[in-house]
UniProtKB/TrEMBL annotation, chain A:
GO molecular function, one term: FAD binding
Protein name: CO or xanthine dehydrogenase, FAD-binding subunit
Pfam families referenced in this protein's UniProt entry, alphabetically: FAD_binding_5
Database matches in PROSITE patterns: FAD_PCMH (PS51387)
Record-annotated FAD-binding PCMH-type domain positions: 1-171
PANTHER family: XANTHINE DEHYDROGENASE FAD-BINDING SUBUNIT XDHB-RELATED, XANTHINE DEHYDROGENASE SUBUNIT C-RELATED
Species classification: Bacteria, Bacillati, Actinomycetota, Actinomycetes, Pseudonocardiales
Listed transmembrane segments: none
Organism: Pseudonocardia oroxyli
Automatic annotation (TrEMBL), chain B:
Stored PROSITE patterns: 2FE2S_FER_1 (PS00197), 2FE2S_FER_2 (PS51085)
Keywords: 2Fe-2S, Iron, Iron-sulfur, Metal-binding, Oxidoreductase
2Fe-2S ferredoxin-type domain ranges (all copies): 1-78
UniProt lineage: Bacteria, Bacillati, Actinomycetota, Actinomycetes, Pseudonocardiales
UniProt cross-references to InterPro entries, sorted A to Z: 2Fe-2S-bd (IPR002888), 2Fe-2S-bd_dom_sf (IPR036884), 2Fe-2S_ferredoxin-like_sf (IPR036010), 2Fe-2S_ferredoxin-type (IPR001041), 2Fe2S_fd_BS (IPR006058), Beta-grasp_dom_sf (IPR012675), Diverse_Oxidoreductases (IPR051452)
SUPFAM superfamilies from the UniProt entry: 2Fe-2S ferredoxin-like, CO dehydrogenase ISP C-domain like
Gene3D superfamilies assigned: 3.10.20.30, [2Fe-2S]-binding domain (1.10.150.120)
Protein name per the record: Carbon-monoxide dehydrogenase small subunit
Pfam families hit by this protein: Fer2 (PF00111), Fer2_2 (PF01799)
Organism: Pseudonocardia oroxyli
PANTHER family attached to this UniProt entry: OXIDOREDUCTASE WITH IRON-SULFUR SUBUNIT (PTHR44379), XANTHINE DEHYDROGENASE IRON-SULFUR-BINDING SUBUNIT XDHC-RELATED (PTHR44379:SF8)
Length: 264, 152
């Protein structure tokens, strides 16, 4: 929809352009920003004109630019494991995937955000550009910690998500995925992932069922009872029209056990 | 602000675009191309589907400013000397009721058949999942897509 309160539009070409003035917001793909009124927004700063390469493979792993679209992520030969499953969990049509960005989905940080699930599942780290200091105050934070709640992040005003970094060690991991919703094609009530790294470490992640990602780590694949106990003890299960907290806890336990068995 | 873009193969300029304007508004109200329809305005219905640099997007969710320097194809650009085979198939099968969703279905169908000339029914349904018909005329639409595929 048209954003009637917006009276300014800037195309960012350099880092200095990303300094936000009063009322300005970063524009990524725009698929959420343009889907509802933004009454407190009076200016847009287009991040997509920064010209960042969508995906970069290095010895350290995979760097996904914040402006990488979901379509670009899925089409890339170096796409990480679970990318397709997590993108499908978004329930968006291909017309959305064409322009919606990975970084935008992470920054929006809804509990059911598929790109948060992907990054949390793969120990993804967010590279955050600080608004001042010429890069001296930039920092990295695990995406599982950046997403602090259903629609909230730890990002401070003016900070810009530059990239999402997936470490090389997890790219060769064995992975498994489950999703459940109240309707067959409904919005995610719970998204569960599991990963066993080449060294044997096992990581299970709950998203959508808890307000922020729940990461369960084990030095080796745990037993069923230990995993279930940790799932039951996790905090942040919530109730909304898409599912009750008790249901979310229960299905998380059932589906993570399926994943555990699949990875055994 | 002014935006310069290529629409249906023709270089165009749009003046007085206001900064929060969507590409859909710019196409319909500034460039005189009302084929793309304004319905849900939130990316649910697909009636505003156009191609941006060859890929289908919901024009209601794209900032007009982001179309600067890019190529846009609207439903008006589908037909050449005659109807595009996809359009012809929709006519033959009567895949139109009120017609409001039709431009979006045409664009999504053409995109599908350009990528996959012989899609299966599940693939058709998947490709059209972002397009809604409130008349619920889906069976005729599916017939039309199958016909368009067979006629290519």
């Amino acid at each position: 929809m048209d954003l009637n309160t917006v009276t300014g539009y800037r195309r960012a070409r350099t880092r200095a352009d990303l300094a936000l003035g009063p009322g300005e917001r970063i524009l990524g793909g725009g698929t959420w920003l343009y889907s509802e009124p933004q009454l407190d927004t009076t200016g847009l700063v287009d991040l997509t004109t920064m010209g960042w390469a969508p995906l970069t493979r290095t010895d350290e792993g995979l760097s996904i630019a914040a402006t990488c679209t979901i379509a670009e992520l899925l089409a890339h030969p170096d796409r990480p494991p679970l990318a397709v499953e997590c993108a499908n969990a978004l329930l968006a049509s291909s017309t959305i995937w064409t322009v919606a960005t990975v970084g935008g989905n992470v920054c929006r940080a809804f509990a059911a955000a598929g790109m948060v699930a992907l990054c949390a599942a793969l120990d993804g780290v967010a590279l955050v550009w600080a608004p001042s200091g010429g890069g001296r105050h930039d920092y990295r934070i695990p995406v599982a910690e950046l997403a602090t709640g259903n629609g909230t992040t730890s990002l401070a005003p003016g900070e810009v998500l530059r990239a999402l970094e997936i470490p090389a060690r997890v790219l060769a991991a064995r992975t498994a995925f489950r999703k459940i919703a109240l309707a067959e094609l409904g919005r995610s009530g719970a998204v569960l992932t599991g990963r066993v790294d080449p060294g044997g470490e096992a990581v299970f992640v709950i998203t959508a069922a808890t307000a922020s990602p729940t990461v369960l780590r084990y030095p080796a694949l745990p037993g069923a009872a230990a995993l279930r106990a940790d799932v039951d003890a996790a905090v942040g299960y919530y109730t909304d029209p898409l599912g009750s907290a008790d249901w979310r806890r229960q299905v998380s336990g059932v589906l993570l056990e399926e994943i555990r068995q699949e990875l055994a | 602000m002014r935006i310069e873009l290529t629409v249906n193969g023709v270089a165009r300029e749009a003046d007085d675009v206001w900064e929060g304007e969507s590409l859909l508004y710019a196409l319909r109200e500034r460039l005189g191309l009302p084929g793309s329809k304004n319905a849900c305005e939130q990316g649910e219905c697909g009636s505003c589907t156009v191609y941006l640099d060859g890929a289908p997007v919901c024009a209601c969710l794209v900032a007009a400013g982001q179309a600067q320097g890019r190529e846009v194809t609207t439903v008006e650009g589908l037909a050449g000397d005659g109807l595009d085979p996809v359009q012809q198939a929709f006519v033959e099968k009567g895949a139109v009721q009120c017609g409001f969703c039709t431009p979006g279905f045409l664009m999504s169908t053409k995109d599908l058949l350009d990528r996959d000339p012989a899609p299966s029914d599940p693939e058709i349904r998947e490709a059209l999942a972002g397009n809604l018909c409130r008349c619920t005329g889906y069976e005729k639409i599916l017939d039309a897509v199958r016909t368009a595929a067979a006629n290519r």
